[in-house]
Write a structure and sequence with these properties.
399 residues, alpha/beta, FAD/NAD(P)-binding domain, 7-stranded mixed beta sheet, 6-stranded mixed beta sheet, 13 helices, 37% helix, globular, binds flavin-adenine dinucleotide
Amino acid sequence: MTNILISGGSVAGPTLAYWLRRHGFTPTVVERAPSLRDGGYKIDIRGAALGVVERMGLADEVRRHGTDMRIARFVDADGRQKATMSAQLFGGREGDDVEIMRGDLAGILYAATKDDVEYIFDDSITALEETPGGVRVTFENAPPRTFDLVVGADGLHSNVRALAFGEETPFIHHLGHYISIFTVPNHLGLDRTEVMHPAPGRSVGMYSTRSAADAKALFLFSSPPLAYDRRDVAQQKKLLSEIFAGQGWEVPRLLDAMADAPDFYLDSISQVRMDRWSSGRVVLVGDAAYGPSPASGQGTSLALVGAYVLAGSLAAAAGDHRAAFAAYESDMRHFAEENQKLAESNLKGMVLKSAGQIRFQMFMLRLMPHLPGKNAMIKRVTEPIRKAATAITLKDYRS
Ligand SMILES: Cc1cc2nc3c(=O)[nH]c(=O)nc-3n(C[C@H](O)[C@H](O)[C@H](O)COP(=O)(O)OP(=O)(O)OC[C@H]3O[C@@H](n4cnc5c(N)ncnc54)[C@H](O)[C@@H]3O)c2cc1C
């Protein structure tokens, strides 16, 4: 039996642990947060990723937690409605695609694994030392242990990637924008509604999902790479306040509420691009290896599918990690690249450069329901996403 350490207990980590367990391996998950991180934003599960969730027997539960968003409304600086869009189309979803809060998905995946997978919370790997028979791992808190393999499922700024491949700069590609999201009181009384206020180079939104008492504020802005301390939340809040100073609609109120937000998040919209995802006995999965950026809407689906393929490849290779990592890369790379391609074109519609472009976008949204070719136009939006989301066929691996 192979002992496998997974760093990161969000989406890719627990999914990998689930499938490794099913294939007879012994996974251990180390998560830096003191307990399961239940906060977060809306994420989508589409295409092949839905197949993974179905094979885990979790599809019904995931659907029960769907956000059930109804509509996206676009408003100007005075809050006047300029256009609307169905929530499905706004999220680029069709058919069976599910939108769920990241924290709800993480909770479902954790519940499906916690009884037969060892979870170590509030800890992090400090060093990896590869030996002929395994990897000796040192932790911040727990005593050192040796594992057969180590997997980095620890996100965009992966710790395992830094330890095994070096610092992140060569791997992280900034797509020219930043995103911030945090919980705010639902002072607009939104019910399964998303409201967006686009301004040149900066868009602000607020949404509330099914059964949520509060709302999320979303800030997007164009910017070259900014210098700030990723651990200094106060500095990041100040930065966001400065960038959005003077913007209309509910922006001043949302920025005021930011002071009390328990889950403030700010990061660049960036992709992880690497020539290879493994080094010796260490391998990466999910955002750590091929994070497509929030703008692609496909990070979660890539994490789910990547975890399934990696675990299956290890089972198919009977634990021969070299053969397994090679198979994992060759089966996943095309799928990862196709989904990464979505991000830059999505971003063009998410943050518009000028007032004229915004007026044109609002005009087209108002006109669309009345156009004879509207179905073809909708397909032009959803088809590239559908194609990317299904650009892999799930294999049946032996268990
Ligand atoms: C604002 C925002 C909006 C998004 N919107 C969408 C969307 O609409 N659709 C979509 O599909 N995706 C979206 N995503 C992306 C999606 O959340 C990720 O692609 C997905 O969660 C990837 O899962 P992961 O498990 O690889 O990484 P993550 O979810 O980032 O999880 C990494 C885990 O590793 C842990 N960790 C970090 N460092 C360490 C360490 N040193 N030791 C131990 N553990 C560690 C973290 O605490 C975390 O639990 C969005 C992301 C953001 C930030």
